[in-house]
Amino acid sequence: MAGKTLTSRERWVEEGLAVLAGGGCDAVRIEVLAKRLGVTKGGFYGHFKDRDTLLGEMLATWEREAVDDVLAAVANESDPKSRARRAGILTFSSDRLLPLDLAIRDWARRDPAVAERLRRVDDARMNLLREAISTFCDDPEEVEARSLLAFCAAIGAHFLAVDHGDRTRQEVLARAADLLLENRAEDAHR
């Protein structure tokens, strides 16, 4: 066996995530991954019991990156609104996280276990929004409504095919974030 390189468990997971982002859960096949990695299927079973085990590790990796890594990246932001904005940018403008997020949302529609994991991730994201909005709004119903609208805008913008006149999508989304994350009463007194 001298000179033979084994494909690491992490490479299988990474390749699985790349295939998931590009083609959805059904595209994640052992044969496909082996071909993309330039190895035989046999190497897969040295690391994983079966495809479901791989899918579970892929979801765990995504959840860690989507929550723990994003929260760690924004932890030094002193202002909760800045933390929420930066977390949104890291998540919904990321070449890595955005395609995974959209693919996992699609997968969650058909798989209750994936839906539960997505719920945990979305709850963490909503908590960040709630924290930010509650810094200037003390009405719990308004905090929840603004948080939901901000989250829906971040996700829904990727599904809309609409023109914004002479404004870019990013300009409109930035203005929507301003409206949802700012204290309008304070602005009126300026």
Describe this structure in words.
There is one protein chain. Helix 1 (9-23) packs across helix 5 (97-108), helix 4 (80-92) runs antiparallel to helix 6 (112-133) and helix 7 runs antiparallel to helix 8. The protein has helices at residues 9-23, 30-37, 51-74, 80-92, 97-108, 112-133, 140-156, 169-181, 184-188. The longest helix is centred in the first third of the chain and has 24 residues, at 51-74. The protein is mainly alpha-helical. The chain has one domain (9-188): Tetracycline Repressor, domain 2 (Orthogonal Bundle).
Summary of the model, kept short:
The protein is an all-alpha fold.
The CATH level-2 architecture is identified as Orthogonal Bundle
Give the C-alpha Rg: 20 Å
Following the backbone from N to C, one meets helices and strands in this order, namely HHHHHHHHH
Based on DSSP secondary structure assignment, what is the total number of beta strands?
A: 0
Q: What's the main sheet like?
A: none
What percent strand?
Answer: under 5%
Instruction: Give the overall pLDDT as a whole number.
Output: 91
CATH topology: Tetracycline Repressor, domain 2
In the predicted model, the low-confidence regions spanning at least 5 consecutive residues are: none
What's the overall geometry?
elongated
Number of domains: 1
CATH class: Mainly Alpha
Structural class: mainly alpha
Counting H and I runs of at least 4 residues, what is the number of helices?
Answer: 9
Oligomeric state as shown: single chain
The span between the termini is: 73 Å
Going by CATH, what is the homologous superfamily?
A: Tetracycline Repressor, domain 2
